[in-house]
Write a structure and sequence with these properties.
Blueprint: H1 3-31, H2 38-49, H3 55-72, H4 74-77, H5 79-85, H6 89-103, H7 115-143, H8 153-183, H9 190-193, H10 196-218, H11 222-231, H12 233-243, H13 245-260, H14 269-289
């Protein structure tokens, strides 16, 4: 292979990574809301798993859809907002993830997942993404007339962005790592058919969450709606008890999706309270499920 061929092959890899990231980012963006941002989860997965030499391609891949969306609203919020909203969040997150990646890896030397590392990375990405979103929101509000600018929404917006980013990160990153772990011994989808975890997910987790979601969407009393939402946390705890952090990751991701489907209101305070409870329980289940199991003690011999 000539030097010129190698050169074009490297650039081809960068272009492929940028194009793939831009395509998946668009899908995650369309599925996200302010209090449930799957884009943070997708961004976190890439920053945890993609080699750092491809990070410039990731930045380009996010810049294209972000700038396209910003330019579509230039007539309403002005060019200054376009500059603020056009900054790719992944670039901001790299400022924290690069030293974190240099300090350690998501996997321990024995191949196990450092769940504390994942939670810290999720919190950092959620915090930096929320700061960037809040900055662009502040610029947008300053461009609006004083009587129309809801200044009180700055603090509410930051809280919603932070919670949405953290829950969005928990929704995607742990489940990706869990599937990666499960497929490591046999990298084919055949192993799922023989997995007790996969069977429990199909037989009772998904039906239970579907029933709770339908009941929540048809509930007439706010108290009943909140109880149904909080009830979605119980299946996650059950699978976490049985399968450790793998069960928590898959069930928590499903519960997060089901809870998000119970409201179509932007920044619904009632939903945000339930999502905060889910995020707390989700984090605890992942951390406790990721603790190393104690070694079995040898039986004491009599005599």
């Amino acid at each position: 292979m000539t030097k010129s061929t190698k050169h074009w092959l490297v650039w081809g890899q960068y272009l492929a990574v940028a194009a793939a990231y831009a395509a998946f980012y668009r899908v995650a963006f369309q599925l996200s809301v302010s209090h449930w941002e799957l884009t943070v989860g997708f961004r976190l997965c890439c920053l945890l798993l993609v080699p750092m030499r491809f990070w410039p391609a990731l930045a380009v891949g996010e810049f294209l859809p972000v700038m396209e969306n910003a330019l579509a609203w230039v007539h309403k919020f002005g060019p200054v907002w376009v500059l603020a909203a056009g900054v790719p969040q992944i670039v901001v997150c790299m400022a924290a993830m690069k030293p974190l990646r240099r300090w350690g890896t998501v996997r321990a030397p024995d191949g196990s997942i450092r769940m504390g590392y994942v939670i810290v990375a999720t919190l950092l990405c959620a915090l930096l993404s929320a700061l960037r979103d809040t900055a662009s929101l502040w610029v947008a509000l300053t461009y609006m007339p004083a009587e129309a600018a809801p200044w009180g929404s700055i603090g509410v917006g930051f809280s919603a962005y932070l919670l949405g980013g953290f829950l969005g990160g928990l929704t995607l990153a742990p489940v990706v790592l869990a599937v990666q772990d499960r497929m490591a011994p046999e990298p084919t989808f055949r192993m799922f058919w023989h997995s007790p975890l996969f069977r429990d997910v199909c037989v009772w987790l998904v039906p239970v969450l579907v029933v709770l979601t339908i009941q929540a969407n048809s509930a007439e009393m706010p108290g009943t709606l909140q109880l149904l939402r909080l009830g979605m946390i119980l299946p996650m705890l059950s699978l976490a008890w049985r399968y450790g952090w793998h069960g928590a990751a898959i069930a928590g991701s499903a519960a997060s999706l089901a809870m998000a489907l119970t409201s179509d209101t932007m920044r619904d305070p009632a939903l945000i309270y339930c999502q905060a409870a889910l995020a707390l329980a989700f984090s605890a289940a992942l951390l406790l499920g990721g603790l190393p199991k104690p070694a079995a003690q040898p039986a004491l011999q009599e005599g």
